[in-house]
Design goal:
heterodimer, A: globular, B: mainly alpha, 24 helices
């Protein structure tokens, strides 16, 4: 649990660094997000006059739900101690809880920024979530379980083979991951231009320690999605249950390598593509939903596809 | 024993109803009637709860020499009835508790107090009934008493229309059920449920009964396209009655559907599940889209009931499909999911209507565009409302998530079905269920965000204060039930096991076997969910992070105006409204479903008239089905009107022609 917490800011730093290098800038060091968080923690909180108790409680709720969700995704080993307490559907629903409260916090102060962010966020979520559920259905039908540990163990076994539905599910999952983490082409994490913001618009009124917690939660969410893709589609090196120290070590090294690979891939993708207009996003996510549905349908009509 | 207690409770409610008639003139009547209703409902609730938990075979039926002389009036309580009695009386008890405070604001006491206990009694009677006559009589009694409550404020024009539409739909529904029972009884006329259960039903009878029950019970529950009366009538009634109608009466309709189709009709065939699933998925998706387009708080909640009815019927449809192919464990899972959602929805929908009632008494306003910032004025009520919003949006660790999770688990078992039509349909139903769950979260961000957060949009908010203690007690009781059922769902599932055993001859594995109160639908390796642990983890993580931050980080806090981009003192009208919040979703989904069009008129430079943005929405169901029917009725009435003004020769020739025609038919027939 602590490992994901420690690694998350480094991942964000890595993505920023690679993006900067691709643009031939030197870029901030990879450890910069840690310094940003420390600086934010030391600063005072500037709270809007009519912010309610909900506004002050929300950062901790978001952080808690995201952290629990991230801790339930196998990182370097399957067979986590509490993996049976929530399956993949529950993990997605936990992230949905975090988003629910963030959207409410955006509405709390009563500025038009917060409203625009919340309203767009729920629109994006209303398409991304069903697409994600469809991906889960595909995986669950292939592995015969919605338990993430079981699915990961199954995906690592040779029984899985090459399947059309898995390919479709992977594309859908990547699209959903981009949308959920407010990445280009859906949202731009670096912008502060009013008309293009979604996530940043919701957290505009946050400052100091509250903002630090929210930033950390966002980094955790990015890490969660990359870990999810890694443990489902690149399950090599995952230490099985009842493992020795050697396999654990291999697991940790391969996990960090997978995270780095995911971060670099994300940076390259973001540099290569332009941000979409807000009302193009539903088409982009609709494609993910349809791909997911197609994958599930394939699974329903044939056990081998 | 249970039957006797429940019948005495019903009788007591009817006596209270008469008492309400006499005491309504004085203010103390409110206390007497609602206090008595609370006590009686609590007794009925405990009797039903003990019956449900104790299990065992159905109680022997009681026959009273009332009603039809050759049938009598039969009453019986089995596990299914006991479960619905729990739902009804839980709703009744909390609504009465709430009304102890809320009812003091009532201006038309004499039109509410006599009908409220009768309405409660009627709902209990529907579930207790064990023959067709008693069932239909109680059903109609329930419709009429609730109609009277809808018409309590009959001088408001919209309430009159709501009452009219409700009356038409209710009579139509009862007629459909009447015909369904006629078919079930068969040529021998066995009107007791026991006789109907024993009878063999031909496939054609089965199809007709299913269609008629979908019309009859579906119109009461609010299945699309029969939902039109629901968003009109539910908000028109006083809020505690709205809560009962939306949270409980729709469940009585679900009970009617289950009783007739799953119990009396015998094992369903696969095509019946196709029909139910298609209607249910359409209901879930359309219901939530309607709710998103709505800006009246109580109407939004009423439309959202339509969505939840869709979710319940998706579970029922899946149960039919599994049952038709003898997959009893899967059928039990789907049925448990549906019934769990019945319980959950009755809890959080009552809670939300109570909250809406508190807002309405505080501000005398239901239009969300005039509200905002109520979290500062009524912090406790808004906390309870927030719990309801989280629960209904199917977010863990509250109860709404558990029942949707069970439904998803049931869907994941469906590839084993041999029927191809179902194999194609069920993934689509799953996608629509996921879509409606996500849209529900959007809908309740809107409902809570616009009503309780932000800055006040009009002066009415400033007069609002925290609502009274009775209302708060009722709301917090329901909110804690939302949490309890969410973190300890195993107890609910175990209580439902004898019920599913009766109906689909299978039950979910006993949940107490798993550690830490986790629930396991089929086997632990397949899927499990532990609400308690998830709740504990979230609470620990939140407390830990809050403690760490407060230990390590700066404590400084400064209040300042919100960031205004350099334009100080932004007007409250610059914040997002309900309409603007829903605009992205309206553009994405509304253009297809509601043919939403926006037209913007900007006056030319120099013209001082305001710019106008018009949004045009078309209700596909009303304009596609009801408006043509109404036009046809009107046109035929106009046409028949001509027969009023004929000469005596005209009438005589009509009589002659009719006679010739009849004789001709008779001659040809024989």
């Amino acid at each position: 649990m602590l490992l994901v917490l420690l690694l998350a800011p480094a991942l964000v730093g890595l993505v920023g660094k690679v993006k900067a290098r691709l643009l031939r800038r030197r870029g901030a060091p990879i450890l910069q997000p840690y310094r940003d968080l420390m600086r934010l923690l030391r600063k005072e909180v500037v709270l809007a006059d009519n912010a309610s108790w909900l506004f002050r409680a929300t950062p901790y709720l978001i952080f808690a739900t995201t952290w629990v969700a991230a801790a339930l995704v196998p990182s370097f080993a399957t067979g986590l101690l509490f993996s049976w307490s929530a399956d993949l559907i529950a993990i997605i629903a936990l992230l949905a809880s975090a988003r629910f409260f963030l959207a409410l916090a955006g509405m709390d102060v009563g500025t038009s920024f917060g409203g625009i962010g919340s309203s767009r966020e729920v629109m994006i979520a209303s398409l991304a979530e069903p697409a994600m559920i469809m991906v889960v259905f595909t995986l669950a039908l292939i592995a015969g379980s919605t338990q993430l540990s079981t699915i990961a163990a199954f995906m690592a076994s040779p029984a899985v083979g090459l399947r059309v539905s898995l390919g479709l599910a992977l594309i859908a999952l990547i699209i959903v991951a981009l949308a959920e983490n407010a990445r280009i082409p859906v949202d731009n994490p670096a912008t502060h231009l009013e008309l293009t913001m979604v996530h940043e618009a919701m957290v505009l009124e946050y400052s100091g320690r509250h903002l630090a917690v929210i930033e950390l939660a966002a980094a955790l969410k990015l890490l969660l999605y990359i870990s999810l893709i890694a443990c489902l589609f690149l399950p090599w090196g995952l230490a099985p249950t009842g493992h020795g120290a050697g396999t654990t070590f291999v697991g940790i090294i391969s996990y960090i390598a997978k995270l780095a690979f995911g971060g670099v891939f994300l940076a390259i993708f973001e540099t290569a593509i332009a941000k979409m207009r807000v009302f193009r996003v539903p088409q982009f996510l609709g494609a993910a939903l349809m791909l997911g549905l197609l994958a599930v349908l394939l699974r329903f009509v044939s056990a081998s596809l | 024993m249970t039957v006797v207690i429940e019948l005495w409770c019903v009788a007591a409610l009817l006596i209270v109803s008469v008492l309400g008639l006499t005491t309504a003139r004085w203010r103390v009547g409110t206390m007497i009637v609602y206090g008595a209703c609370l006590a009686i409902s609590a007794i009925a609730l405990f009797a039903a709860l003990i019956r449900l938990v104790a299990g065992g075979p159905a109680t022997p039926e009681i026959v009273l020499p009332l009603g039809l002389p050759w049938v009598g009036t039969h009453f019986r309580v089995d596990a299914l009835a006991a479960f619905f009695l729990v739902v009804i009386n839980l709703g009744g008890a909390t609504a009465s508790l709430y009304a102890l405070g809320y009812g003091r604001h009532e201006t038309a006491r004499q039109r509410v107090l006599p009908f409220y206990p009768a309405f409660l009694g009627a709902m209990n009677l529907v579930v207790l009934a064990d023959d067709a006559f008693t069932f239909l009589f109680s059903w109609e009694f329930m419709s009429l008493t609730s109609w009277a409550l809808v018409m309590a404020h009959h001088r408001v024009a919209s309430n009159v229309r709501a009452g009219y539409v409700y009356l038409v739909m209710a009579s139509f529904g009862t007629m459909a059920l009447l015909l369904a029972f006629g078919l079930l009884a068969g040529p021998q006329g066995g009107y007791t449920f026991a006789a109907m259960r024993a009878e063999f039903h031909a496939p054609l009878t089965e199809a007709l009964v299913l269609a008629l029950t979908l019309l009859g019970a579906g119109s009461k529950a609010g299945l699309v396209p029969l939902h039109v009366w629901l968003p009109l009538a539910h908000p028109a009634a006083p809020s505690h009655v709205s809560a009962l109608m939306s949270g409980v009466m729709t469940k009585v309709a679900v009970y009617g559907f289950i009783r007739i189709v799953l119990d009396l009709l015998g094992p369903p065939s696969w095509w019946s599940s196709m029909v139910v699933l298609t209607l249910a998925a359409a209901t879930a998706l359309l219901g939530v889209l309607y709710a998103l387009m709505e800006h009246d708080l109580k109407r939004l909640l009423a439309y959202h009931t339509v969505e939840n009815i869709g979710i319940i019927f998706i579970g029922l449809g899946l149960a039919f499909a599994f049952r038709a192919y003898g997959m009893d464990a899967a059928a039990a899972l789907a049925l448990t999911a549906a019934l769990f959602h019945v319980f959950n929805h009755s809890v959080f929908k009552s809670l939300l209507f109570f909250g809406a009632g508190a807002v309405e008494t505080g501000t005398e306003e239901r239009d969300m565009e005039q509200l905002g910032g109520l979290i500062h004025r009524m912090p406790l009520a808004s906390l309870a409302f927030l719990v309801g919003c989280v629960a209904i949006s199917a977010l863990p660790p509250l109860n709404g998530f558990v029942s949707e999770w069970l439904t998803f688990q049931a869907i994941l078992l469906s590839p084993a079905l041999p029927q191809w039509g179902l194999k194609i349909l069920i993934p689509a139903v799953g996608a629509m269920l996921a879509l409606s769950a996500a849209l529900a979260a959007a809908c309740f961000v809107k409902a809570f965000g616009v009503t309780f957060l932000g800055r006040p949009r009009s002066a009415v908010v400033s007069q609002a204060g925290e609502t009274d203690d009775f209302s708060l007690a009722a709301m917090f009781f329901l909110a804690s039930l939302c949490l309890l059922a969410g973190i300890l769902p195993g107890f609910v599932i175990n209580a439902l096991a004898p019920l599913t055993q009766n109906l689909v001859s299978g039950h979910m594995p006993l949940q107490s076997a798993s550690s830490w109160f986790a629930i396991v639908p089929i086997t632990a390796s397949r899927s499990s969910y532990d609400g308690l642990l998830v709740f504990v983890f979230i609470a620990l993580a939140a407390l830990l992070s809050a403690a760490a931050i407060h230990r390590l980080a700066s404590h400084a806090l400064r209040r300042a105006p919100a960031w205004d981009c350099g334009y100080p003192d932004a007007s409250v009208r610059t914040q997002y409204t309900a309409g603007s919040f829903a605009q992205p979703i309206r553009r994405v989904f509304g253009t297809v479903v509601f043919q939403a069009r926006e037209s913007l008129t900007i006056p030319p430079p120099g013209d001082a008239s305001p710019a106008v943005l018009r949004v045009e929405l078309h209700d596909p169901v009303w304009e596609g089905i009801y408006a043509p029917i109404a036009r046809a009725v009107g046109a035929s009435a106009d046409w028949l009107n001509r027969f009023q003004f004929l000469t005596i020769r005209g009438y005589l020739s009509i009589v002659f022609a009719a006679l010739v025609l009849l004789l001709l038919v008779l001659a040809l027939w024989l």
